[in-house]
Amino acid sequence: MRRINFDRIMAFLFILPSILAILVFVYGFIGWTAWASLLKWDNIALIPKGSLFPDVAFTKFDNYVRLLTSDQRFQIDLRNTVIFTITFIVGCLSLGLILAVLLDQKVKGEGIFRSIFLFPMAVSFIVTGVVWRWVLNPGNETSGAVGVNQLFENIGLPFLKSAWYTNPKILYIQPASSLGTFLSDIGLGFLSSPNFGISLAILSVVLAATWQMSGYTMALYLAGLRGIPEELREAARVDGASELQIYRSIILPLLQPITLSAVIILGHISLKIFDLVSAMTGPGPAFATDVPAYYMFDTVFRGNHFARGAAIAIILLLSVAVLVVPYLSYSMKTEVQQ
Amino acid sequence: MSAGVRKKFRITRIPLYLALILAAIFYLLPIYVLLVTSLKSYADVNLATMWSIPEGIHLDSFIQAWNGDPSKGTLGLNRNFMNSIKLAIPATIFSAMLGSLNGYVLSKWKFKGANIIFPAILFGMFIPYQSILIPLVQTMQGWGQATRPFLNNVSTWNMPVYFEWVKTLVLTYTPAYGTIGGLVLIHVIYGIPITTLIFRNYYTEIPDELVEASKIDGAGFGGIYRYILFPISMPAFVVVIIWQFQSIWNEFLFATVITNKAEVQPITVALNNLAGSFIVEWNVQMAGALMAALPTLLIFILLGRYFMRGLLAGSLKG
């Protein structure tokens, strides 16, 4: 009995450093950042010895109010993040599902195809950014079409040419258009502004990100498909269901939990995307490819606007938490039930 | 009859293979461009011919990317490649060991509150690191200041040649702002959630009866780990080591804020700097990108199976 107690203490002592590290480096630091986001800390105000924060005024939520109401760059960033997240998730899910279903048809060389679809996961976002910046290089007047544009020209599809990540164009509902006037009639006129548009440049970054991450959804879906018993499909076939019907009414519903996991994982990656933007484009023309994570880095480590950066970080954290916390608690609950 | 069936079978499958090959082209396209660009000579790098195969294999781009070009003042990636190795290998080993111990405690020595602590640790895996970045940098800078007198002292040590490595080791791995040791510490700490998760899930599968039986035989906390769990942990170690190595090798955000000098920067930061400077030609950039990608690509090619497992573990229910 005494032995067991001694061992219990040993066990706890072994995990204690990790618990303390997480407590300080995750929760403590988050708390620090949250407090810093409420200060008027806009320059290199040094932190006095023995103190955690510089001696600056407390401003309550001023930094957040400013970001959310009057900071033009942050408004653009929010728009970009929403577009990035939606197109990235939709792209990865659909491409991943299609590839998984194709690979599930007992194809020859499945292993090779799987590796080809998955290898981008193994490289850094920095490598992806550097390479795609070259592939999607739009060229200039003296160079003519280069990169993918040149490829499109050569294979006779010149209409597919694009300015890619240098495209400053924002697609949005024109206020004067019929949809724009309709929106303003029903009191939603604010929607017809560039702040609710689609930045075309960021879609190039989404393309690179999808190239890197869609293999992951493919792998998840393929694992899911392999887990569905063959008898289920057989039974449906006997009942006269077509292959398409089997996929639509039996297999897709069974894959829903996988879709949920994939949305959470991809969503939190896209909300905090930084490396890829940094390597591929930076903020881009008129912040067309700027994202909150990049703004935070820029404003803190280049501009010394500590409190503003902290506020952006907390907004990022909250948006990720909304996604992840329910998922974590759900996973834990189902595990306990098992 | 059977030949007819087989033929029909094949024709209907042509679109299937066509689609797969098209998809494969999409994934391989950047690698093709990477390879043909990096293998071209300077004279041959021309925007207009970027898709064409190089005329002969030229390794000048690799040599320039690796060694740098003094005439342009660009630094080579060789040092940064070594920095990444010095960073990724110890960080991976420490973080795997820590994860294994944590997983062992959380699966076989559940204490009161473990059910709250485990998800609380896991949450650390999902946070955007921006939300801890400012205090992290401040803390590391504080440690940098605190350890500077010591490190200055160390660099004046007069070591016998045989023990010069001790000095290098201390200077490299003392955790602080601007040292590789600082990055090792950060990666070990923020690696706790994922490594703990993988090991805990792995050890949970191992029957508790095995542990109970050896308790009756008199084995304690250390003995059970040493003689029962550790010897059968290899599969989990392989998964965790591969996962941590590739994430640490590929990591950029911590590296860019913690290391400010080229002498200590890992390869991702150096590659980003190389690509950001306008005087560096595309072929050199591509050669640099290939160098940065090669170690993790090789691991993927050789040990892809284990890589997959880490990937699926990352989605919690692996």
Description:
The complex is a heterodimer of chains A (about 350) and B (about 325). Chain A is mostly helical and about 350 residues long. Chain A has a domain of about 210 residues: Orthogonal Bundle (MetI-like fold). Helix content of chain A is about 65%, strand content about 0%. Chain A has a two-stranded antiparallel sheet. In chain A, helix 13 packs across helix 14. The longest helix of chain A is centred in the N-terminal third of the chain and has 35 residues. Chain B is built from 13 helices and two strands. With about 325 residues, chain B is an all-alpha fold. Chain B folds into two domains: about 70 residues, no CATH class; about 240 residues, MetI-like fold (Orthogonal Bundle), CATH 1.10.3720. In chain B, a hairpin with a 4-residue loop joins strand 1 and strand 2. In chain B, strands 1-2 form a two-stranded antiparallel sheet. Chain B is globular. The N terminus of chain B is likely disordered. In chain B, about 45% of the residues are buried. Helices cover about 70% and strands about 0% of the residues of chain B. The chains are: A mainly alpha (about 350), B mainly alpha (about 325). Chains A and B meet through helix 1, helix 3, helix 4, helix 5 and helix 6 of A and helix 1, helix 3, helix 4, helix 5 and helix 7 of B.
